[in-house]
Amino acid sequence: MKNERKENKVCKQVIGFDPIKCECKTITMCNLQSGGKTLFSLQKLMEGTSFDLMSLKLQQLEEIGLIYKSVNYSYPAEIKYFLTIKGWECVRSLRSYVDVDSIAV
C-alpha cells in the first residue's frame, strides 16, 4: 500500500495527474493512441460523458502538455486532438496501472 502511494505521487509528478483518480483523462489519453480524434468522437467513445466535462478534460490535458489540438480551417472547421511526445510517454507509464490497450476503442 505504501509503495502504491509513492508510485502514484511519482506518476502524478511525471504526467501531471493521478491516473487512478482522473479516470476520464486516462481513458481519453488511451483513446488518442490510435490517432487524432475530435471532441465529438472522444465523447462518443466515452458514453455518458457530457460535452462540457470532455471539453474541460481536453483543455486540462492540453495545459499540462500531454495533448495538442490541430485546427483545420476548411469549411466546416475541424479540430482534432493528438498526443504529444510527453503524452506518448505518459501512456507508456500508464501501462503499469491499467491495461491501456483494453481501454482504448
UniProtKB/TrEMBL annotation:
Domain HTH hxlR-type positions: 25-90
InterPro entries according to UniProt: HTH_HxlR, WH-like_DNA-bd_sf, WH_DNA-bd_sf
Superkingdom in the source lineage: Bacteria
TM region(s), chain numbering: none
Pfam families membership: HxlR
Protein's recorded name: HTH hxlR-type domain-containing protein
Lineage: Bacteria, Bacillati, Bacillota, Clostridia, Peptostreptococcales
